């Protein structure tokens, strides 16, 4: 299935400086699977949003999902 | 201990005199510096019941042992006083380069006492201290003031200044530095104005000695490569705080229309992507590895920021989804010397009072023209500004609407909706200076993390841990945006000072700092009744987005509060128990309090 992935802030280094990429995943892939595929360590992820809603790492993705991944932020 | 200059400069404005004394190193061992040591000094020296605007109030500028070294993110200054907005203890934090300059001038702290009777500014160059006329600067914005003084004394000096808001004793006036940095909250700028001090110019020709240079430099090198500049922290460089707009919108905690909602329809106009399109440059503070400052230019208006707090309180909270209007509002607040959090929050409250027909301030949500007139009116007490300047609590006392005056102890809520992050609600209620996100920020673990935001479970312990951590971090002083742990903090403190602070001891110091702030407030008459939230949080459900339907039932809030007091070892009424005082070496402080 095809998904559109956006990496926020410094995380775009995992896309070599590009912010948004289309990634093909196997059906029923989870967020965790996605992170593994793009080589993004779990500890560098705070919020994952799918189609604007926060999800957890074991949630599955669907075709055409738009995913935004945020780094942890300190302070306020 | 090294890192310190072992010298305090005391300026007596009543007699236009100054003196120096050794830093109280016994206190420094217990409180380190910055927030903690500043509160300790004020607790010991200020008579209870002192009017914040009287000459008897003190304004303490407190650096720390790490200040003036090249330790990453060590360039901030603590400013401590009694707040005119709340009457509580007030410590603020300001970036830029002033903190290091005070250390280079040879001081750990500058304590300003009394008041002069005509507008003045203070010039400090090492041992030279002058109190000079500010007649021609009075009434000018902070930016013009700073430019004038830089021309007069040269670009090497660093400046603290107030704008017209501080001069007019507005309880939401801030102190500015380096043009674009603020000590924002609680009316700290008004305290400076009450002393008739327009600016403080500092030039330092000295240096800071550390105990172990090799270890300190090795630590810095290692941290820059392995810790500070890693993905955990670089968000501040790449995006700045504007990225938090998207995070808050996604999780339903973006203040909208005076905290009536947690999601804002027009958020894309004011998020980090919108900011990047008009970014005009970057800026960092002294010894900063992160460079979180971003300049935004729209038309002729240039502003540093807008930072997340400004965006949340002055845009979404006022239903202003127009970036140019926000940038103008931000710029006006900066130059006039107003805290954008309290100004935006109060503006939104006035909008709701108007729309509900309670009191017509001529403001409404989304009305840009009227909104842009507000900062100047507040700073100069003109028109509706004379009343808006009082802040939400006082406005509510006059006209009603206390259920939705979004403040605690008289300090307006910052940019996180507590109904979407219950620990944040507890943090607001128990913060030493009123509603504040800089004492504990549970949002990182709740809304932005894995912890269930909508439960009381574990929240008291979380808030306590975060409060203790921030307290010792802001006493050492390390900037909020470097997420170092206590182990790393102990390493750098020990390398610089030559001391042997353990992680446990640092945690204890953090607890002690929180507690002495609490004792200060107790002494001023604050009780557990003041540790509360406005009824909107308990009674009104949020309307849309990820937190639609959410509120904090009052009994759940009270449960968290009771747990908070219990875990802290405080009494049921929120006062600190004897056993805990002894443990924290605060018995003397409590006894002195009772005898007063």
Pair with the biggest interface: A-B, 23 and 35 residues
Strand order of the largest sheet of chain A: 2-1-5-3-4
Name of the CATH first level of chain A: Alpha Beta
Query: Strand content of the residues of chain B, in percent?
Result: 5-15%
Give the N-terminus to C-terminus distance of chain A in angstroms: 37 Å
GO molecular function (chain B): 4 iron, 4 sulfur cluster binding; electron transfer activity; metal ion binding; oxidoreductase activity, acting on the aldehyde or oxo group of donors, iron-sulfur protein as acceptor
Pfam families (chain B): AFOR_C, AFOR_N
Family (chain B): Belongs to the AOR/FOR family.
Protein name (chain B): Aldehyde:ferredoxin oxidoreductase
Notes on the structure:
The complex is a heterodimer of chains A (76) and B (596). Chain A is mainly β and 76 residues long. Helices cover 11% and strands 28% of the residues of chain A. Chain A has a single domain, classed as Roll (Ubiquitin-like (UB roll)). Chain A is globular and about 35 Å long. Chain B has 596 residues and is an alpha+beta fold. In chain B, the strands form four sheets. In chain B, strands 2-1-6-3-4-5 form a six-stranded mixed beta sheet. In chain B, strands 8-7-12-9-10-11 form a six-stranded mixed beta sheet. A three-stranded antiparallel beta sheet of chain B has the order 13-14-15. In chain B, strand 4 and strand 5 form a beta hairpin. The mean pLDDT of chain B is 95. Chains A and B meet through loops of A and helix 8 and helix 9 of B.
């Amino acid at each position: 299935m095809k998904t559109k992935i956006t990496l926020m802030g410094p995380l775009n280094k995992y896309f070599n400086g590009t912010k948004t990429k289309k990634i093909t995943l196997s059906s029923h892939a989870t967020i965790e699977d996605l992170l593994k595929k793009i080589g993004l360590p779990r500890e560098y992820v705070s919020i994952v949003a799918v189609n604007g809603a926060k999800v957890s790492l074991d949630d599955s993705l669907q075709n055409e999902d738009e995913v935004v991944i945020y780094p942890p932020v300190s302070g306020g | 201990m090294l890192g310190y200059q072992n010298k305090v400069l005391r300026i007596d404005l009543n007699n236009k005199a100054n003196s120096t004394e050794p830093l109280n190193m016994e206190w420094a061992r217990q409180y380190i510096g910055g927030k903690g040591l500043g509160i300790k000094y004020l607790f010991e020296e200020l008579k209870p019941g002192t009017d914040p605007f009287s000459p008897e109030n003190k304004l303490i500028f407190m650096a720390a042992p790490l200040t003036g070294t090249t330790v990453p993110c060590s360039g901030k200054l603590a400013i401590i006083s009694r707040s005119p907005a709340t009457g509580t203890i007030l410590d603020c934090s300001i970036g830029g380069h002033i903190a290091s300059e005070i250390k280079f001038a040879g001081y750990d702290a500058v304590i300003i006492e009394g008041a002069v009777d005509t507008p003045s500014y203070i010039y400090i160059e090492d041992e030279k201290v002058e109190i000079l006329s500010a007649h021609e600067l009075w009434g000018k914005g902070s930016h013009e003031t700073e430019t004038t003084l830089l021309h007069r004394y040269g670009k090497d000096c660093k400046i603290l200044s107030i704008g017209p808001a501080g001069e007019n004793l507005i309880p939401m006036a801030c102190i500015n530095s380096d043009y674009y940095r603020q000590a924002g909250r609680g009316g700290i700028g008004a305290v400076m104005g009450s002393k008739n001090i327009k600016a403080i110019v500092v030039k330092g020709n000295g240096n800071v000695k550390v105990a172990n240079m090799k270890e300190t430099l090795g630590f810095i090198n290692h941290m820059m490569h392995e810790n500070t500049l890693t993905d955990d922290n670089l968000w501040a460089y790449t995006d700045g705080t504007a990225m938090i707009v998207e995070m808050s919108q996604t999780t339903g905690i973006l203040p909208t229309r005076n905290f009536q909602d947690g999601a804002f329809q027009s958020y894309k106009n004011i998020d980090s992507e919108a900011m990047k399109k008009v970014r005009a440059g970057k800026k960092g503070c002294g010894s900063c590895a992160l460079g979180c400052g971003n300049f935004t230019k729209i038309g002729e208006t240039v502003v540093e920021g807008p930072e997340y707090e400004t965006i949340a309180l002055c845009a979404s909270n006022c239903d202003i989804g127009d970036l140019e209007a926000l940038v103008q509002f931000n710029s006006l607040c900066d130059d006039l010397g107003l805290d954008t959090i309290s100004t935006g929050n109060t503006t939104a409250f006035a909008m709701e009072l108007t729309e509900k027909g309670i009191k017509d301030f001529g403001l409404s949500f989304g009305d840009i023209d009227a909104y842009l007139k507000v900062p100047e009116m507040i700073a100069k007490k003109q028109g509706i500004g004379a009343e808006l300047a009082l802040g939400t609590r006082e406005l509510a006392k006059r006209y009603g609407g206390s259920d939705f005056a979004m403040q605690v102890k008289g300090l307006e809520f910052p940019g996180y909706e507590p109904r979407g992050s219950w620990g944040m609600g507890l943090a607001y209620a128990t913060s030493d200076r009123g509603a504040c996100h800089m004492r504990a920020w549970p949002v990182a673990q709740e809304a932005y993390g894995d912890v269930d935001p909508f439960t009381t479970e574990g929240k008291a312990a979380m808030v306590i841990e975060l409060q203790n951590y921030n307290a010792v971090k802001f006493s050492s002083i390390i900037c909020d945006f470097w997420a170092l742990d206590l182990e790393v903090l102990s390493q750098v403190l020990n390398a610089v000072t030559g001391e042997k602070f353990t992680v446990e001891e640092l945690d204890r110091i953090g607890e002690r700092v929180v507690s002495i702030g609490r004792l200060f407030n107790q002494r001023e008459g604050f009780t557990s009744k003041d540790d509360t939230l406005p009824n909107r949080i308990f009674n009104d459900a949020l309307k849309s987005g990820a937190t639609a339907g959410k509120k904090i039932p009052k009994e759940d809030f009270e449960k968290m509060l009771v747990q908070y007091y219990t875990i802290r070892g405080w009494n049921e009424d929120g006062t600190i128990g004897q056993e805990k005082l002894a443990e924290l070496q605060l018995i003397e402080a409590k006894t002195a309090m009772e005898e007063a």
